Structures are given as C-alpha cells and as structure tokens.
Amino acid sequence: RASMPPSPLSSAWQSFMDAAEIEATVAAFDSLREACGVPSGSHGQAVLDAILDATSSGTGVPQRLKSLMAALSKSFGARPSLGGAAAPRVLISGAGPVGLRAAVEAALMGQCVTVVEARAVF
C-alpha cells in the first residue's frame, strides 16, 4: 500500500519546526499561515485562532503539535487583554532563544513586535 503524500498543512508545520535560522523560520511561518488560511494582515489572537482551528481539524498533523497549539491557546487566554487600545509597540534586542521567545509571546498578546539583531550569522 502506497503512503499518502503529506498534506500542505503537515508539510508547513514540519518546515516550521525544522527551521533553525531566522530567515528560514520567517519563511516557514509565512507558509504555515498560508496553509492555515490566516487572513493577510492578521495579528495576535486572530493568527493563533486560525492556526489552532486548522491544526486541530487538520489531517496528518501530529498529535504533539495539536497538543502544543491547545496549550498555547490556553496560555494566551490567561493573559490580560489590551482592552481595545491600540497595540503597543515592542522592540526586542537580540534574536537568540530568549529574544525570539519574548517576541513570539508579545506578538501572541497582540503587540506590534520588532526584533533587532547585531549578528549576521549565528
């Protein structure tokens, strides 16, 4: 019996999880957004919701990724809301593991995030 080729969503997730450099990660995330049907210009909760919906109902998506998205959604829901105010702008200095984690967390909270990095190569 021939195996089925991976779905675009499953392939996008795999590329995102395998990305090790900033440019590859950004490109993989853009592909993931497209595979999940995230509307262009969406940020924060709208992005998380679209990825969560597509991932939880997607075929061929590993259970560990479905569980990860459910945990992120739960964590996001526990954060305080901005109360309809304009999204604050946040600057993260450093694109190491801590800086990127902070950037993702801030973006998921609906903040407008900019990451700067002095190193050209990691």
What attributes does this structure have?
single chain, 122 residues, mainly alpha, 2 domains, two-stranded parallel ribbon
In a nutshell, what does this entry contain?
This protein is mainly α and 122 residues long.
Q: Please, could you describe this protein's structure?
A:
- There is one protein chain.
- The protein is mainly alpha-helical.
- It has 2 domains: 78 residues, no CATH class; 42 residues, no CATH class.
- The chain is built from 5 helices and 2 strands.
- Strands 1-2 form a two-stranded parallel sheet.
- The chain is globular.
- It starts with 7 loop residues before the first helix and ends in a 6-residue tail after the last strand.
Question: Topology of this structure?
Answer:
Layout: H1 8-18, H2 22-35, H3 45-57, H4 63-77, E1 89-93, H5 97-108, E2 112-116
Parallel strand pairs: 1-2
Helix pairs in contact: 1-2, 3-4
